[in-house]
Amino acid sequence: EAGVTQSPTHLIKTRGQQATLRCSPISGHTSVYWYQQALGLGLQFLLWYDEGEERNRGNFPPRFSGRQFPNYSSELNVNALELEDSALYLCASSSRENSNQPQHFGDGTRLSIL
Amino acid sequence: AQKVTQAQTEISVVEKEDVTLDCVYETRDTTYYLFWYKQPPSGELVFLIRRNSFDEQNEISGRYSWNFQKSTSSFNFTITASQVVDSAVYFCALSPFDNYGQNFVFGPGTRLSVLP
């Protein structure tokens, strides 16, 4: 069974640009979660998508947004990039049927803002 | 509010030493899950263990062991006979018992360096 896949592995942008990060959940999982791990900080919850809808978001500005597609894959978009957006972005997935199972994480996308 | 504290920011040990990573949590939920994840230098999160709040039995898996004490809200992780490959950041996390759709609350992580 393929795990959670994220692309790209690395992304380099400059201030003011937009970044798009992608995530494919484990087959059968309908929920996708996004987390940010900035340098020196722990994991911060960003967004939760389920069945195509945004269900919850963490304490991040509106320039962090995303969507979930009919096949349950997801995009995270970050507009007007700032230097402090440089971080590892992790995606996780889970399913309603196995709600008591741990979230499965992808390998992450490392976003660097120059 | 839920909170996870990992007071040890960084730990360095010499190979074959035992090391314990501390985790203290706060929650008002009566039932919940606790987790440990390992994050090697490559960045991905690797699931290590999940423990539910009504099972305080300690668990051992090879060189890894976990001590869950509800009375002190602690879920400590011990690596016995540490190896260089154990070098990583370790995160303790907390989630509601029905964690579907509930974001995990992660601790800040403990960076473990195992020196040869």
Give a description of the structure.
The complex is a heterodimer of chains A (114) and B (116). With 114 residues, chain A is mostly beta strands. Helices cover 0% and strands 52% of the residues of chain A. Chain A has strands spanning 5-7, 10-13, 19-24, 31-38, 43-50, 53-57, 64-68, 74-78, 87-94, 104-105, 109-113. In chain A, the strands form two sheets. In chain A, strands 2, 4, 5, 6, 9, 10 and 11 form a seven-stranded mixed sheet that branches. A four-stranded antiparallel sheet of chain A has the order 1-3-8-7, with no helix packed on it. In chain A, a hairpin with a 4-residue loop joins strand 4 and strand 5. Chain A is globular, with a radius of gyration of 13 Å. The mean pLDDT of chain A is 89. Chain B has strands spanning 3-5, 10-14, 19-21, 24-26, 32-39, 46-52, 59-61, 64-69, 74-79, 88-96, 105-106, 110-115. Chain B contains no helices and twelve strands. In chain B, the strands form three sheets. In chain B, strands 2, 5, 6, 10, 11 and 12 form a six-stranded mixed sheet that branches. A four-stranded antiparallel sheet of chain B has the order 3-9-8-7, with no helix packed on it. In chain B, 0% of the residues lie in helices and 53% in strands. In chain B, a hairpin with a 4-residue loop joins strand 8 and strand 9. Chain B is an all-beta fold. Chain A binds chain B through residues 31, 33, 35, 41-43, 45, 48, 50, 55-56, 58, 88, 90, 92, 94-96, 99-100, 102-108, 110, and chain B through 33, 35, 37, 42-45, 47, 50, 91, 93, 97-101, 103-109.
Question: Would you summarize the structure shown here?
Answer:
The complex is a heterodimer of chains A (114) and B (116). Chain A is an all-beta fold and 114 residues long. Chain A is 0% helix and 52% strand.
